[in-house]
Amino acid sequence: MAHRIEVAFKIPDTRAEVRKSKLKHLGFSNISDVSLVDVYTIDVTLDEDHLYSAVTTLTNPVIQKVSSGPQIPNNFDWAIEIGFLPGVTDNVGNTARECIEDILPSPMPQEEKVYSSQITFLSGDLSQEEVESIAKSLANPLIERINIKSREKFLADNGMGLVVPRVKIDEEPKADIVNILEASDEELQIIGKQGIANPDGTRRGPLALSLTYFKTIQDYFHEEGRNPTDVELEMLAQTWSEHCKHTIFADPMDDIREGIFKRYIRGATEKIRELKGKDDFCVSVFGDNAGGIIFDEYFLVSHKIETHNAPSALDPFGGSITGIVGVNRDQIGFGLGAKPVINVYGFCFADPREDIPLYKGPTFTQKMLSPRAIMDGVIEGVQVGGNCSGIPTPQGFVVFDERYRGKPLIYVGTVGLIPRESAGRPSHEKQAQPGDYVVMVGGRVGKDGIHGATFSSEAMDTGSPVTAVQIGDPITQKKLSDAIVKEARDMGLYNSITDNGAGGLSCSVAEMAEECGGCHVKLDDVPLKYPGLQPWETWISESQERMTLSVPPEKWEEFSDLMQRRSVEATIIGEFTDSGRCVVEYKNETVVDLDMGFLHHGLPPRPMKTTFTKPVHEEPDLSLSEDLTSTLHAMLSRPNLTSFEFISQQYDHEVQGGSVIKPLQGRGRVNGDASVTRIVLPSPGGVITTQGINPTYSDIDTHNMAACAIDTAIRNTIAVGGNLDHLAILDNFCWCSSDEPERLGQLERAARACYEFGVPLLTPFVSGKDSMYNDFKGYDKDGNPIKISVPPTLLISAIGVMEDASKAVSLDAKFPGDLVYILGETHDELGASEYFAMRGEQERGEKYIGNRVPEVDINKNKKRYIALSEATNQGLVASIQSVDRGGLAIALAETAMGGLLGMEVSLENLPGTFTRDDYGLFSGSQGRLVVTIAPQFKEQFEEIMQGNAYAQIGVIKEDGEFIVKGKEGGIIISDSTEAFLASYKSIFEDY
């Protein structure tokens, strides 16, 4: 018998006020009141006493009231209940189940569940259509069910009714044989694109196997003398997917036989390590779940940035929380297990203030979520994933561009901490041994996450599978993480570990099996969320919160006992071998028997040809205003330049107690470009995290785009007190239409820039990730076919180590009388700039692009960065702000706004060749920084900067006025710092 428990607050419910505000912001102005009721549907056999205990466990009697019948507000007109569909991960329900299990005399059967839902009661003059629109704004129909009732219907039915979203699967699980030996090329292409056929003629979803790959698989099974099982075919598709194998970076391209990854990315790192010699701080690069560098004599730090683009477009919350907890697991799976200590994020969205409908299907079917819904869901997912895991999230960025409307880019990253030695062995080394048990720990396996890897290896269209969506459970993962990295690792209880990410068990077990030469797995032993999964689903599902370990038999009892005491499920599902084969059984039948060499290295090379034509855009002919005050206000109000405090303040950056340079800096709470965190509190050392990203520059030249991203990431690190001696970078390429020669030409140029600019700086690439098909194919608001491709986007992330975090520098001006300096040269480099974009939108309704994209003089910039690091180390610098998006005017304003102080500067002595005041203020020229120093340090500072382009251009003032004089000496900007701060915070102040 199922029980329905409804819980309401006796006191004002802040959640309801937030929801009311959000709905009004979305245009539902007729809402006069909102109230919420939390619902627990307990599908557990409980007697009256245990039911009472369960109710009291789930509620706080001081502030909440509870009943087994409906909670009816005094006044409401409509009720909307939203809960998860069957099989979707329900974190609140799972936690409630654990709480109830704690009060029971014996463990609950696996099939007994607790489900959460929530009722939103609305008061106001609302039509049925309006309420349905409100419900759609609150729920995602891919994963959630909606029930709407009017007041009359609610009272007549005595509430919303009992719904138990049990999973019901009637098919008998079995492995099927897929006849590919006799299949035509056309049939193979259909299977590759649409998936293996079901008995009813429908198909399972994309395998993302090209005909070239399928022909190679066909040849292999000809030699084996049999057709593959569906489990084998699905496994090969996951293992060979672009998402997992990064084939575009690995395959020959033009005359680059080794591929652009080996030549430009790995090649840069190998060259840098050779040049550094004994000063090389890299420990593990490109061979594990993250890149590892030396922190100090006792610890290593690891770093990894992932993308979760396609899942976040379908289910923003589920996609982003899965991304953040997944990259946390990359750290737990680095070496023998690193502790996640810092989270970072980056979001590329369309403007959330505009909702232009898009549809995946024809005739207005499968409507895509609005940019606002995507943004809200993604932000919440990263917040829940990080905050509930107890990992600080101090660093992030947001980029807005209409080309992210079809598919957003969602970057999530984690820094890990690991001792250099653990249980008497180097902690960054691991190797499964023949005879070790294959052990799965953490969450159970369900249908969620099926075809996630192959789905992410294609453009998103009408065939994109719902099962690709997952929802992470940070609470379950936190227990797993602590049990592994705080106990089992240092007890020496396992030999190797990795996470169950893309491809699930099929990839994690097979990757570890490569360390020893084989594996033998029994799928019957894999713990499931619910019965009825097909063997191929169990093998490739990406259900979250799972790790795979190799545990020696003699240590299994101790390991199992530890996991049981920590409430972490651990199950032996097989054995590692040296057979040279990956063998999987299900119900005493072999469903996988593949040669390890073919599985991992059998995919054939696909030589690629590129083309490149540098675009030529209309060069803007802009009028020049003598007063640029309103221009600066307008620039500060642009989504790409404005405050995103509404995101930063949701993310806990103080947990673990190491925050030094915070996400919001100064009295004005201005978003910083970098953060500094102490990760070993007895140590004075700190870790710098930052990034560089300039996707609009791809409209002119991806080579310059990549160079600027690298230079920006390095410059941001220097700006908070870092130095080039202990600094590594990571690359994340998010491309589009990567089977097109022109797009490949753009990719090759960007990758080449990574080598050309990374090597002179001696900043090794230690990790990376690519996502190659960020395209949307569907239909516009008029039903016409449409393709939207993201701009070629390269994110360069940086991780730097400071020996003394107390020397870190923030961006905000500190004292009246401090001198303002500009370091670097300013030129007329406004191609693809925010200024050109704004002027174009003002004058013709669409952006100007121009042609002169910023160029990077790496040798000059490097010399400047080294000098500034020396000045910072000597304590001469009061504040530093990197000049990035928006140009010098934005950096100057942020410095003043951060300190809530005035500033007066002049462009008369500004180094460079700029020709106009507005170009000088808004150019994107690289390598520049705004620095303030106390007057008594002027001589020392300028002596250190000798030989570099720099100038004193102004002074910090107490009066709160922000004044800029032009090249000719006249005032061109004049207003209060607080007025500019109001513009800076205006766009998202209600979000």
Concise overview:
Among the domains are: 155 residues, Mth169, Chain: A, CATH 3.30.1280; 311 residues, Phosphoribosyl-aminoimidazole Synthetase, Chain A, domain 2. Helices cover 32% and strands 24% of the residues.
List the SSEs and their pairings.
Elements: E1 3-9, H1 14-25, E2 31-43, H2 48-57, E3 64-67, E4 78-84, H3 91-103, E5 113-124, H4 128-138, E6 144-150, H5 151-157, H6 185-194, H7 211-224, H8 230-239, H9 242-245, H10 247-250, H11 260-276, E7 282-284, E8 291-294, E9 299-307, H12 309-314, H13 316-332, E10 339-349, E11 359-361, E12 365-367, H14 371-389, E13 395-400, E14 409-419, E15 421-422, E16 425-426, E17 437-442, H15 452-455, H16 474-488, E18 496-499, H17 504-516, E19 519-522, H18 535-540, E20 546-551, H19 553-565, E21 570-576, E22 581-586, E23 589-595, H20 596-601, H21 629-636, H22 645-648, E24 659-661, E25 664-665, E26 670-671, E27 674-677, E28 686-692, H23 702-719, E29 727-734, H24 741-761, E30 765-771, E31 775-779, E32 785-789, E33 793-802, E34 819-823, H25 834-844, H26 858-873, E35 879-882, H27 888-899, E36 902-906, H28 917-922, E37 929-933, H29 938-944, E38 950-957, E39 961-965, E40 971-976, H30 977-984
Helix pairs in contact: 11-24, 13-14, 13-16, 14-16, 21-30, 23-24, 23-26, 27-30
